[in-house]
DNA sequence: AATGAATGAGAATTCATTCAT
DNA sequence: AATGAATGAATTCTCATTCAT
């Protein structure tokens, strides 16, 4: 039941927003009563906190695996990390949207906790960039932090428009984004002849 | 007075959120009564709509000027458009954050209207890219739409973290982002010899 | 309207208890809506606080007059103070009962505030006793504080049983209590003969 | 277990109030579940009734012994009865406070039952006074009922302030109160001369 | 004896909005 | 232009109680 409540809450928070979703909405769709909701959760907020934590912790855990993987080059790690973010948005789009929209409604303490974890995620990404700069896989001409923010914006923002509708997969999108970041879009004039 | 209400609303919507800001909050800070609010606006929503419209229409207008400017190359237009977005976030950060967070609270009709204008902004950006591809300023290896979304993500997301704190100006940030998009970050091995 | 709400609240708090009285109860009897209640009071608690404050402050003010009255002996002051307490219970019996029963439901801060004022009232009473001890109006054989507590118990407790039903007036009761306290009930054997 | 529940309930009712104490509170502190509570009691109310009954019946029983004791004068009986009330408050202060505060929450039937027993206790006290008046131990100048109420107020009210903190014992307090009631506090001018 | 899931009838409170003045 | 009283619908949360196991 706890899980059913969580799932239905995700659906509704995504659809109508956290504030706009009433507990009545949630329990009505599950054909239980408000009492049941409060048997499993102490407040509406607590549900939101669970959603946030599960999302960012899932990301961090998978990111850790990428970082630890010794067989990957930094370019590959970059790609994998981008893909990780996008695939998460693909498979857990609702949670992704909720997580990007509804931070304000958490208690301060939880906001802090979540923000710390997000920062960790960003710093891990910066590690990949820095490592790549050292191994000369990446050039030094862009500050690591700006790059990381740019990347996070690019990928995270896709929760706003990206739907796997057959036309474009998360894999392809990850490839495109990696390519943009790696090679840019400038047409390099072919140095011809002589 | 109407303007004072609008300004105070922007402050509060940014600080506490649209839903969380009560009309009482707004009028209390202006030392007037609710009646006054309703004399100038028909509803709380109307204030939000005004904020949204003013923001996107401001962007569109300035974007138009860039597009029309015959003296600029497409690379330069790209940079100008990126700078436009970022400088808007710099000078109208509060509005930017509101506009990115609070779309749901508008009436459907207004949502549609706003979304259309946003699409127009994106399509205008795509025009620059397509023109650049034609003039061989930009390479063809990335789909225009994805590129546009990536750019929008990069720049728009900066409302989330970017504050002009002396360390980094909007101009610099625009330059960095343009460079990432143009040249990528891949270290190109110097073709030696012959 | 604010006053009507206060009055009706007093009736109901006395009759059903603070916790048991709902705001719906209050407004229903006044034929207004809950919104009206909250227009005049910020919470149910605030009403209770007002009742408490008004009661004890009324007592303190009248007690002050007794204390300042130079024309009264200490015995007379004692009587007047006892009468004051009892007449208050007579004319404001409902408030008296509420005030004696419902302290717990106030916020800690207010509880402290009320308790301080109550203590002030008791200490003022002790002043009368001490003054009377000095002028030899009262004997020294009972500790002032215990006497004060005893008196307070006697009189305050009458909120529990005392109703002016024609049989016994507050004046008479005050006279009886003063007499008990002054002369006791011991039959003093008449010293006969030489 | 039944007894543990009762004890914990007394603690909590005294501390937080009857209404404010939830069954969850009670069972949480005993590390059992609500089912257990309902195995031993049919309702929360029933617990309160038990507390009330045990308290007043204890008083009545001990009072009976005082009344029956042929070796005591009425003055002594008066003292013993006062001491009984105060010692009960001393040893069962929590119950005393509960019993004085929470009568309203019992069913009407139980309220009646309790009130009858309280009246019995008061009438028994009046018997002592009347007997003393007959034997000329007490003077006739105060109505018996008022005296009884005054006494009950004095003693019962002490649940509100009296704590055995080493400074004052229940025995001493009983002696003081008996003395006040017997001898009053008026300084009797020494009959001088022959 | 004891559990734990579920109920359901409230309760206080919030707040955008209306409207006569 | 502006006020202030009043509305009323909605919302979160509480908790004693039930009951199958």
TrEMBL record, chains A, B, C, D:
Domain of life assignment: Bacteria
What range(s) does the HTH tetR-type domain occupy? 1-59
* Record's keyword terms, sorted: DNA-binding, Repressor
- Extract the PROSITE patterns matched here: HTH_TETR_1, HTH_TETR_2
Q: Which InterPro entries match?
A: DNA-bd_HTH_TetR-type_CS (IPR023772), Homeodomain-like_sf (IPR009057), HTH-type_Tx_Regulator (IPR050624), HTH_TetR (IPR001647), KstR2_TetR_C (IPR041490), Tet_transcr_reg_TetR-rel_C_sf (IPR036271)
Extract the signal peptide range: none
Q: Does the keyword DNA-binding apply?
A: yes
Residues annotated to bind DNA: 22-41
Name of the protein described by the UniProt record: TetR/AcrR family transcriptional regulator
What organism is recorded for this protein?
A: Cytobacillus stercorigallinarum
């Amino acid at each position: 039941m706890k899980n059913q409540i969580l799932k239905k809450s995700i659906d509704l928070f995504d659809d109508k927003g956290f504030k706009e979703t009433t507990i009545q909405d949630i329990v009505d769709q599950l054909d239980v009563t408000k009492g049941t909701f409060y048997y499993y959760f102490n407040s509406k907020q607590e549900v939101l906190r669970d959603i946030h934590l599960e999302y960012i912790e899932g990301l961090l855990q998978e990111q850790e695996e990428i970082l630890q993987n010794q067989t990957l080059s930094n370019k590959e790690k970059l790609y994998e990390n981008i893909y990780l973010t996008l695939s998460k948005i693909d498979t857990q789009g609702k949670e992704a949207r909720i997580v990007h929209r509804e931070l304000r409604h958490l208690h301060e303490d939880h906001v802090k906790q979540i923000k710390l974890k997000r920062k960790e995620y960003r710093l891990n990404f910066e590690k990949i960039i820095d490592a790549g700069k050292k191994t000369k896989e990446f050039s030094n001409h862009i500050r690591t932090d700006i790059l990381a923010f740019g990347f996070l914006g690019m990928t995270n923002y896709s929760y706003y428009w990206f739907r796997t509708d057959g036309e474009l997969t998360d894999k392809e999108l990850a490839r495109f984004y990696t390519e943009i970041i790696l090679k840019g879009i400038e047409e390099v004039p072919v140095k011809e002849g002589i």
